[in-house]
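Show me a record, fold above all:
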Amino acid sequence: MPDSAPLELSALSDGAATTVHIAGEIDLATADEVQSFLREQLDGTTEAITLRLAEVTFIGSEGLRILIWLRAECARRQVGLVVGDCSPIVVRTFGLCGLTEVFLGEQDTA
């Protein structure tokens, strides 16, 4: 069985807005690390968080749970959330789970 892609988390912030890049797999094994990282980024953000998921190679139910949590937490704190630059696997998973409009809105996902 091949090794899973290592998880890579990075962020750029100016205090008001933060862009978060996630690469690798978001699953049960990485969920705590991803959620903790996103919580830290959200704590330091006042206006908006942008997620860049172009290098995500797998997203499981725990990954979706984290994104749903992040969306709710951003709404509670009145911080914008933009999900963009999604890998095909993320777009497909959103579609299969009925979450395309929730996370990508009217964006062209073709």
